[in-house]
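User: Run a structure prediction on this.
Assistant: Running it now.
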Amino acid sequence: MSREFETRCIHGREDTGLNDRFRAVSFPIYQTATFSHIETGHNGSGFDYTRESNPTRTHTEEAVAAVESAKYAIGFSSGMAAISCFFELFGRGDHIVCSEDLYGGVFRLHRLVTEKNGIEITYVDTSDLNELSAAVRPETKAIYLETPTNPMMHITDIRKAAELAHKNGALLAVDNTFLSPRYQNPLKLGADIVIHSASKFLSGHNDTVAGFICLNDDRLNDGLRLLAKTTGASLSPFDSFLVERGIKTLAVRMERQQENALALAELLSLHPRVKDVCYVGLKSHKGYDLNLSQASGFGSMISLHTDSPETALRVLHKVKVFTFAESLGGTESLVTYPLIQTHPDVPQELKERLGIDDTLLRISVGLESINDLISDITQALEG
């Protein structure tokens, strides 16, 4: 019997084969560095050392794989650790095409590590398939994209990007953090790799940092696990527990957050202090129809340009229900200033072209009363 998404959030797959001897309803935290052996070369449990594997992390990986409809999921100490491990698959002379509208930490990774390793990166507007296709070369080994993008919420056609990548013998990797498995499953659309910053919607409580790579390919899974073990970027048992706990409420949280986000986006789009609103759930959004063709929802991330830098700063400092903080996807509503918080490492020319300026705010809508959220953002905008 196949399980619906809400059931998989709570119970995972039908049978993971990993059970607690005491039949605890909440899977235990195996807070141990190592495991004893019964005899030479055999410990009886299948676990040796927590950097390599741990029952709590394995249970959480099974939960993430279940909701992402993946064969495998690999847990990392952060979203950036997961992204870094993906780029370690490539070497000198390889070429990778990336979304140009991208979390700023990825640009920093490329500048400090990836390019130093002899890998060439080309940034393009992946929502423009002609531009994406023109960027692919014989030495291209992967296309890496976000959809919706961070922070401008552009939408890329995952199916066509996968076709393009595979036609050229390359991998397609999709960061699915913003929509989460609740609303989008890139592996079903042809992607080879799905990456999550599980600090965000998967854990959902702004209380842990974690990352995951989800995939179906046996060889890639073996290679990425070896890299994770070798670099030591594995997710800890306690943080694994927090992520697994958060996934249990993923469906209901995201449904309420999306409901709040749509109401807030509609209000903001009419406010005189707001120049434009980037929310995939607004029918005026350029990627609205495309997103509907490959996702079942819109999520709860909104970006907007205010009428002036002064208005943007006033919002940041006057909100009371919203919290002025980085990150996203938790129960609390957050407002972020991408220019100096999440995207300072993006080249200035690119920031100007994308619209990442001193009037841009990014909002992660949480679970508070929509009336309180509307009242709070209104008073902050109007001063």
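Residues 57 and 101 are 32 Å apart (CA to CA).
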